[in-house]
Design goal:
It is built from nine helices and four strands. It has 201 residues and is mainly alpha-helical. It has a two-stranded antiparallel sheet with strand order 1-2. A two-stranded parallel ribbon has the order 3-4. A hairpin with a 5-residue loop joins strand 1 and strand 2. Helix 1 packs antiparallel against helix 4 and helix 7 packs antiparallel against helix 8. The longest helix has 26 residues.
Amino acid sequence: MTPLKRFFDVFVALLLLILLGPLLIFVAVWILAKDGRPVFYLAKRMRTSQDDFQLIKFRTMTVALDDSGVSGGDKSSRITKAGEFLRKTRLDEIPQLWNVLCGDISFVGPRPPLRQYVEQFPEIYSKVLISRPGITGLASVYFHEHEEKLLARSRSSSETDAIYTRACIPRKAMLDLIYQQRRNLCMDIAIMIKTVFKSLR
């Protein structure tokens, strides 16, 4: 990560935390009133091929002790009513501004993967995770909706895992590597704007 990209991340994250502070409080109270505790969802994600960190999001599902893997159709019954709205608008990802400030992730980059997939596909992620993971990225903008449709078909965790590893990881990695080759601040800003418009739509 270049010093300019890091400065941009910190500046924009602080600005958004100030501007979105009231919204953060409102959403937290809304989740607490509607779905109870916990308000936040913490998940271990990979920052590099070896190092992990705690990703923070607003909770959108009922709590399960044996939760693992990516979300697919097998987990759709666990999505709360508040969570459904938060996911559609991507408001569940606002708490990740804290991860940006801590330097765990950037605004733009590959989505931080679960350790199980990094260990399963070391050759892919050793290349992808040269870039700092991000809240959004090229794959998020151009593949996220298709990924959700693919995973929505699954009826078990094993089926979700099979679809994700076969159809999603290679395509997302291809887009992440295209970003890696062409990344610059202007491209980051364009991806962030496209992400906002997709969420509003």
